[in-house]
Amino acid sequence: MRRDLCDGVGIARLLNATLVLPKFEVAAYWNESSGFADVFDVDYFIQKMSGYIEVVKEMPKDIGSKEPFKVDCSKRKGQFDYIESVLPSLLEHHYISFTPAMSQRRDRYPEYARATLCQACYSAIRLTSSLEKKAIELLDAIPKPFLALHLRFEPDMVAYSQCEYPNLSPSSIAAIEAVRVDRKPWTGELAQIWRKRGKCPLTPNETVLMLQSLNIPTSTNIYLAAGDGLMEMEGFTSVYTNVFTKSVLLNQEDFTRMHGNTKAALDYYVSINSDAYVATYFGNMDKIVAAMRTYKRMHNTLFLSRKAFAELTSKGLEGVALTKALWEVHKNDFAIGRGFALPDCFCEFEL
């Protein structure tokens, strides 16, 4: 949500267009829909973007009564010009909705558009006061210092990855099959190729091996930034015993009333304020957390290499040999606290 909004702001500035606050469609993951105002402070956003772009809460009735013309740039490959590609549709229809291109290099925007994007991402977006209060309450409840671990091993994530995991418990297998739909796992040689490309989420047990290879003490306070339904956690918590989750730290009545996007916002807040952040995947959450931590010069951020783990284990490495090899892979990133995927933050030079 945050990433797409930042892109939308930058592109609106490129097109000299007015931005209508979006309604986020998240039904595919959380079976719910929500608006900008459910998570973010609307008035603060509009105020902070003044002078960069015009932002309105709703479309004027004479225009908003019709469906916007849809422009989908998500499948565009390589570099292209939004002004050449999208502006003609905006001029013709006056009201468009668009999906940004995921491959677009934002650092190649003109300076005025980069400054607008940076203002939105790092200055104008903040949680609602009630949600921020809850996030601070959660952060205060975690013993310090602590490491925030973004662990992705929920049933839907495993099903989506199409990876084979032969040693899972029957309950985990059943949970995965319940959400698999038509995304059948790769098998045989194709499964090995897929895994060696780093496409498979690390299991909690594999994550334990990775953390131990980095000599992270088993007494470390770890906050699990993760969705509901993490599987196979018994092996992890038997080694790293000081594990904390929002479901335990927050008032149960409050927690059960929260939507999925609200829970994700809490994880985001805790992650950008943690003493260290370790990610087992490199998805949208990890990218935006890494970018914010870079912007705040909080460089204790590390991405564990799924590709390296797959390559090493495919060679038969295990035990001490495996942990030594994993250390060799990660030691430079770990020593300076910057993961291999941590982006340069061009925004720090724009504000």
TrEMBL record:
Keywords: Carbohydrate metabolism, Fucose metabolism, Glycoprotein, Glycosyltransferase, Membrane, Signal-anchor, Transferase, Transmembrane, Transmembrane helix. It holds the Pfam family O-FucT. This is O-fucosyltransferase family protein. Belongs to the glycosyltransferase GT106 family. Its main location: membrane. The gene is LOC104778181. Pathway: Glycan metabolism. CDD domains: O-FucT_plant. InterPro entries: FucosylTrfase_pln (IPR024709), GDP-Fuc_O-FucTrfase (IPR019378). It is a single-pass type II membrane protein. It comes from the Eukaryota. It is found in: Membrane.
